[in-house]
Amino acid sequence: REPARERAPSGLLDPSLPSSGAICSGCGAELQCRDAEAPGFVPAEKYRELGAGQRGGRCQRCWQLAHHGRALRLRLPPEQHRSVVSAALRRPAPHGRRPLLLYLLDVLELPDPVLPQLPALLGPDAPAAGLLVVGNKVDLLPADSPGYLGRLRQRVAEACERAGLRQAPLVDVRLVSAKTGYGLEGLISRLQRSWRGTGDVYLLGATNSGKSTLFNILLRSDYCKSRAPDVVDRATVSPWPGTTLNLLKFPIINPTHDRMFRRQERLKEEAAKTEDQLSDEERKDLNHLKKQGYLVGEVGRTFQRQKATPVIDFDPDMLSYSVDEDPRQSPEKPEEREEFTYNEVKDARWCFDTPGIVKENCVLNLLTEKEVKLVLPMCAIVPRTFILKPGMVLFLAALGRIDYLEGEKPAWFSVMASNQLPVHISTLSNADAIYEQHAGQGLLKVPMGGEERMKEFPPLVPQDITLKGIGTTEAVADIKLSSAGWVAVTAHEEEKLLLRAYTPKGTALVVREPPLLPYISAIRGARIAGTAAYRTKKPPSLVENLRTTGRR
Prior knowledge:
globular
């Protein structure tokens, strides 16, 4: 059986009502009240209030995601996401300018499973002006050594080479955090330097790569027209995979010499500040971001549109009432939404947010709404290191398991996964019994729901792995347990290890060599007496474009 991963939609249907042409401003789907499990569903009573071509309304699914964090069941095959993206990329280039592809990948997911699919999405006759690859979520990873960002950037570049992207030449690789703002001002400057040689920009990537978060940041930055935030609604952002269902867009600002000069002056002024010079509110926001990630930045705006002072309608009759009467309330006027004028957008270049490509063989596809929130890291990952002898077993929740079968000496296993996922160590002789007894229960936590949940959850399937250690300070490989996280294995030099790793049936297990963070086992405290665990240690955060003198 399929797990009940989303809630059922609610509200009245009315198949007789024709299409209004209204678009959901959160996911891009056409609003309708005919099918509750199709994209863009709105209850009939709300749908009747929509006008033809109206913009700004949200479907029931986006409303629930944005306001209550709940995902509604949606009947949409993964192929439909691909067809929307492919059709967009193969459209004739407006004004004769080929598009720039801005591909966003989650650095935790390297090697990216969707990047090799780009050539098929583009097709042989739809070349792009270039490919700018952005590694997102670097804020979640601690610095395991000096220069680790350069190593991460190289890993991303190597993933691009392996994908064989010939239709779009690689123009740059960037590392950012769409959540904390790290690296985004540099990305915006790089995009603006590509203005003259490219046309529209398409934001591409797998589900949960952070595309809609980046889209919303760019919408309120120097990259878009100054009036765009008043006209274009933000995309719906959720940890639930596949939130964006169609194209969303905003117009890109023309980076004239005057605008770029003013922007550089703003960036220089902000880079000269120390933390002492920030306002109380700015310092509060900064401290919050430091708790969220290891790398923190800020995205400002140079080109702010000055809003006109609102005109107050004065009705003297409203003040003329006797002592025996209550003051009358004037009827509320519906808020008039702003629209772009024809001249503003007739020659515009647009930045498009596209539907995320669904990752196949991904453990997230098997999880419920609550389980997804526990599995996806939402803040800086604190590495958890354990020293295991042969005959010991490591469980990552009930989503992954690694058995240390053969070896001469102990080895170190460093877990990089959501801080909310439990790690449990046992002996090989007890491991099966522990899984049978505690999968679906509190000890292993995810999946959750007891025996009934585990009846529908796929069994763990094994894969044998042989590794040879390269030294006690450097991991030899990462064992990536689908999208649940990974375990970096560090062993004595020339030490041969035989491991058996498990993931749920139908999900991908990857041995990543070389590892993403080879020196991760060094980020640990003292050994906890009587256990296989070391105390955890969280490195400090780094703030971009802020002078280090002053408050620390």
